Amino acid sequence: MPTASRPTVAPAHTHGQAPFTAVLLCNLGTPEAPTAAAVRPYLAEFLADPRVVEIPRVLWLPILYGLILPLRSAKSAAKYATIWMPEGSPLKVWTERQAKRLQGWLGEQGHRVRVAYAMRYGQPSIATQLDALADAGANRILVLTAYPQYSGTTVASVIDAVSQWTRTRRHVPELRFVNRYHDDRGYIQALAHGVQRHWREHGRPDHLVMSFHGVPERTLHLGDPYHCECRKTARLLAETVGLEPGGYTVSFQSRFGKAKWLEPATEPTLKALARDGKRRVDVLCPGFTSDCLETLEEIAIEGRQAFLAAGGQEFHYIPCLNDQTEWIHALGAIALNHLAGWPTQSGPDARELATQKERAVALGAAR
């Protein structure tokens, strides 16, 4: 079994094999099925990550395994069942489609880049996908996270997983990371396109809510830039679609535990807007690039119910970027910016590779 002190033995190298550059698109993760049995190991991996829950392990793990997992697994599974697609988990479906379309877009621009996707928690894992790419000959890998706003709970956790993988490899490829793109023009324009398209089809709301995933407030005071980057994304998007500061609200969802989290919270915000006489609200989740449980169930179902029950008349959920063409173009531009300097448009030709192999074999190489 691989350990930090003993790297695995790499597959036998084949001389003359063309190296290539790869992009690994990393998202959060998902259970394999909407069942308690499938949700439990996913939640265990997710909530046991010290980047996600910053409580001493000796205190947290007994609570997680003795209380949280037995109680939450079945409840979460029931929620997943309400949003499951015929092809599987929405987050996995959209992430896979993004990866395929991103590789196609890069190819159309003349770049010889292989794109794969991985999940920080669940399958396909980051380690498994990195192994597959490296074993196939990838000598340069760009790790592109699905998180527009940087947070230690998300982006840094992906970096942790990649770093842990490098400790199992004797021959480590060159690695680069995309940590954030919260203010990238293409990303903002893609968000704006989705909002404006929805408004053309359904009219404008009385108020727009931009709901981001929440994190404990203490992370802000400890130096995590996530809160500030969410605010900047919201401001830039509002300016792009022509909203004044009073026409939208930034909120934070998915609170967990008793600690104080970033505010205002999304559900109380929706209820307050209804009580204040807002007849229609539209809700967008700019921090999620793929629709998932947090957007389709927590916002589109639970958020809708909260707003209508408080007296609101009309609730619209604006879908995530998913595989919209505008987003794929923006994602491609982000990738190319970080791939700069790597030879993605050329490589050794067949004759040169054959010569390399002949020389290696002449020196005693088996293959």
TrEMBL record:
Pathway: Porphyrin-containing compound metabolism; protoheme biosynthesis; protoheme from protoporphyrin-IX: step 1/1
GO biological process: heme biosynthetic process
Location in or out of the cell: Cytoplasm
Keywords: Cytoplasm, Heme biosynthesis, Iron, Lyase, Metal-binding, Porphyrin biosynthesis
Enzyme Commission no: 4.98.1.1
Catalysed conversion reaction: heme b + 2 H(+) = protoporphyrin IX + Fe(2+); Fe-coproporphyrin III + 2 H(+) = coproporphyrin III + Fe(2+)
Principal location listed in the UniProt entry: cytoplasm
GO molecular function, one term: ferrochelatase activity
Family per similarity comment: Belongs to the ferrochelatase family.
Stated name of the protein: Ferrochelatase
Protein species of origin: Ramlibacter ginsenosidimutans
